[in-house]
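Board notes (copied after class):
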Amino acid sequence: MAILSKKHAGCSTSCTVGKWIVCLLLLLVAVAALVGVYQTHVIVGTDPARFAIQFGSTSGSLSILAFVVAVMAWGKKMSCCMSGTCEVCK
């Protein structure tokens, strides 16, 4: 019975690699959402030196929400990766 109740110190290599791949993908999603926020809020006219910022549109609000959700998911996963705790390997 002592063998079954023994806790191991950390995650396996494949679990650690999988967690870091998910963190990288969530970072890419957050960057894509940031690009979406920029594209929906900044309007570039014919002259690139002059641009306007637009607020209050539905697409702008949804892009900000998508960015916030992506950053929160990335932050939560990064805190799990940095702390070394894993829900699967407990």
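Comment from the instructor: The beta strands are 42-44, 51-53. The two ends are 17 Å apart (CA to CA).
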